[in-house]
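Long-time lurker. I teach an intro course on protein structure, and each term I like to show students one example going from raw sequence to a predicted 3D structure in token notation. This year I'd like something fresh instead of my usual example. Would anyone be willing to generate the tokens for the chain below so I can use it in lecture? Attribution to the forum is fine with me.
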Amino acid sequence: MNAITFTQAIRETLAAEMRRDPSVFLMGEDIGVYGGAFGVTRGLIDAFGPSRVRNTPISEQAITGIAIGAAVAGQRPVIEIMFMDFITLAVDQLVNMAAKLRPIYGLDCPLVLRTPPGGGRGYGATHSQSLERLFTGVPGLKIAAPSNARDASGLLQTAIRDNGPVLFLEHKLLYPLRFANEALGVTSDFRLQTSNVSLSPPIPFGTANCTRPGNDVTIIAWSYMAYLANQAAAQLEQNGVDAEVIDLLTLAPLDIGLIVDSVKNTGRVLIVEEGPKTGGFAAEIAAQIMEQAHDYLEKPVRRLASPDCPFPSAKHLEAACIPTVADIVREATNLL
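-- Reply from a regular --
Happy to contribute to a lecture. Here you go:
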């Protein structure tokens, strides 16, 4: 079966949206001829030219600020922050400007900020963080976190067409993974110069996906952890455990309705995230479950996350920090 990588899905979608709408343009460090740190924008400068694929200086604050200005002026910038860790340099622009323009000034800010979170590559404490927790409580900022190529394409289309700022998370371990072409609707003969690519339809924000139905335990995850959760559910099935997997797709807005329905069905919940456990987004999900589905719980909500420490560079130490399929299987089994 032909397959397409997560990287190709993002690239194809960017190209298709740039063809569809001339106001869409890209900005970021080394995204031109080099194609970005992870090769996502490779070939786009040849297809669209340097006016729509713009290399920038090394200043995340400047990149974000310029993009906000362009968005307010009627353009639709898609910017790339090389590692999610570096987004901290643009927090003021995102939180105090982009997210506030509509409620304060009545202005649209159609900005998409793409960035790769997560560890697993041995990049160390300042290049491996999952910082979505810093933004899930910011009104006016949407957050998408796909776990596969189809969802990445559908969510990115929605993000680019949205009239507000969107933080689009692309876990670095997902980039090389291959997914069936039938799921995305594109061919493996990948040519940016063609315009006959048929993408999957846009996916509305705030709509999670039950990727695997079950009756024994609910596993909630997003991004790369959702990818692992589906593998864990397959192993649990071999052990006689019927696990239901909820892939959130977007963290803001959160599809709490689907989560509550699943909790009412299973009575047991495991929430998996890659960031440190203390203060993580899993805690917010757990709190909302307790508020809306407490009477249906057979056991207390359980969280699986990384320890409260920076990720080390050493491969074996980093591997000990990040939740694995085996960890998910163990924690789900313990809930039973």
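Some talking points for your students: Confidence is low (pLDDT under 50) at residues 182-196. The longest strand covers residues 269-276.
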